[in-house]
Amino acid sequence: MSEAPTHRRKLLVVFNRAPVAYTRDKGGDRVAKRGGGGVVTALGGLLAHHDVTWVASAMTEEDRVVAAEHRGPFDEETADGAPYRLRLVPHDQAVYDRFYNTFANPTIWFLQHYLWGLGSAPDFDPALHDAWSDGYVPVNEAFARATLEELDREPDAAVLFHDYHLYLAPRFVREARADVVTSHFVHIPWPEPDYWHALPKELRVAVHEGLLANDVVGFHTERWRRAFLLAAERLLGARVDRESGTVEHRGHTTRVVARPIGVDPSEFDRLREDPSVLEREADLADRRPSQLVLRVDRTDPSKNIVRGFQAFALLLEQHPELHGEVGMIALLAPSRQDIREYAEYAAEVETAAREVNERFGRDGWQPVELDVADDFLRSVAGYKQFDVLLVNAVFDGLNLVAKEAFLVNERDGVLVLSENAGVHEELGEWAMTVNPLDVSGQADALYAALTLEPAERRRRAGTIRDHVRTHDISEWIEAQLADLDAVRSA
Question: Which of 62, 84, 125, 204 has the highest Cβ tally under 10 A?
Fold first, then answer.
């Protein structure tokens, strides 16, 4: 495990979601609910060790009330008592809806996960162009203004932008403050240049130029880093040095790096014995079959849940001796159900699970158990009990499930892993690799995993666990800060 940071820095974290969301309880009192999501959790270590101001969208109605009360940054603290400053950026609700529910998620997210069959989607009609010009652009401009105001308060602060919501903001900031030191970490895949032609030219150029206004751009894998370098070269005509990983464009040099994110092993050491986890685990252990295939995901089309059920059905068809002996539990969290594509996919997931059960189920044995709820402790309980973990994403920036699960699993579980999940770059050597579109191949991999010799199961699981403990979240944070220090020293 990497060591704690050695000196405090002044940092601005700029990300759409805040570490806290404000609501009102039944009595009318304000409640601060600690924020979820992988990025918020991952960046929590920064708040404990550095002087951080976090700039985020005011997303709830009460968030907007809080933003109006303060009109700037105010003091907050994490659940562990670490202090930080929070600035909530209010947006017109119609503008934010266009930004989030029309452009950022069903457009940028779909593009970067290769979810479009281009013969039918997307259709860049006036509504989608408006979602860019009257949604994505003004929200990014609002973030840039807030960031510049915070830089006026703390001129020496470095700025850490995060993810696909804010591709334009760095350029707006750079144009006003040429001396600022900024990084931008992209947590999702980066497609090859040709796929970016799904966006109109001015949009794809703006996305890439926005990122190249940063001093450092980070990805989780070499694969996504190489794709970005190639896209910068082909789509912008930028000058790319592949050996050094630098891009020169519009008089600015950007270093492009690969920094795979880790998890906090101490958190999972604690969660392993959490009473709520133990209660959920006992319930799971009472009803589990002899062997358990587990998946933990959001109901997101990129996670490929339906094909996973199809592969499990094919496994049961080809190996009737497994009937009654093996089951699949899908512990899913609802995702973006206000967006039509996500709601439709969630319905497809339910249909696919029901079809497997109707075809193969019998008295006392239900092949697939589908549990959709926002319950992370339930997922940890599942992590402890699986014999096979299925991670078959169509594409994934990294995938923390594949790392988290092995910190607590107690059955020498086997990982069946998509070759298009970013984490495959780290863990693929010890996993059963699958093509996420190949249902037959996934069924074969599930069978191989279920029948793997105990000694080999133990070796693979132990090696993954050791890797995850060694390359933890602190290592990821320190690598990014080192990248910023290198910019300053240069």
Answer: 84
The single-letter code of the amino acid at 453 is E
Placement of tokens 């270093």 in the chain = 255
Residue range of the domain that includes 14 = 1-262+471-490
232-241 own/partner pairs: CB under 8 Å, 24+ apart: 232/208, 234/193, 235/193, 235/196, 235/204, 235/205, 235/208, 236/205, 236/208, 236/209, 236/212, 238/208, 238/212
The DSSP output letter for 167 is S
The pLDDT, as a whole number, for residue 425 is: 98
Edge to edge, the sheet with strand 239-241 lists: 74-77, 83-89, 51-57, 10-14, 158-162, 182-185, 216-219, 252-258, 246-249, 239-241
Over the stretch 88-131, which tens digit does the pLDDT of each residue have? 999 999 999 999 999 999 999 999 999 999 998 899 999 999 99
CA distances for 345 relative to 342, 465, 473, angstroms:
5, 33, 32
Token pair for 309: 């059920």
CATH number at residue 287: 3.40.50.2000
Contact 234, 449 (CB under 8 A): no
**Burial category of 6 from C-beta neighbours within 10 Å (exposed 0-12, middle 13-18, buried 19 and up):** exposed
pTM exceeds 0.85, yes or no: yes
Flag whether pLDDT at 5 surpasses 60: no
Structure tokens at 105: 């998620």
248 and 144 in a common domain: yes
Same domain, 370 and 476: no
